[in-house]
Specification:
Layout: H1 2-39, H2 41-74, H3 80-83, H4 88-94, H5 98-108, H6 113-120, H7 124-138, H8 143-152
Helix pairs in contact: 5-7, 6-7
Amino acid sequence: MEAFHRIWKKWRNLLVYGFILGMLIISLRLLRWKYMIADQSLEIFIGIVALFFMGLGVWIAMQLVKTKSKDSANTESVPDQELLSIDEIALKKLQLTKREKEVLGLIVKGYSNLEIAEALHLSVSTIKTHVSNLYSKLDVKRRGQAIDKARKLRIVK
């Protein structure tokens, strides 16, 4: 039994010294961390602010993508009557095709060529051809002029 107590005293002392050394190492690491934060506080603050604004930007972008996809889903099956308020006399003079009327209606709504192509399930080059034909038939050179002239002729809302 005495042998056991002798061995236990050695091991107990070893465990106590080991525990004290472990606590000392942990406290030194914490102090080092504390001083590191004090020395690098501006950089850490800037990093936290940057992460916040990056997250905010990602959230805003996701909200815009949801809105845009809902808008494009709503315009895929839009009838001609909703897009155009047709003045038959002006249309006969211009000789616009059905597809050109659809493209003009989407141009008036502010769609880009890519968005028009997606809504009508056509290629972008086909849309560019239709837009070019519209410009020549309306005798204009730009999108804004085409919209103004179409409104003056009362072939769009």
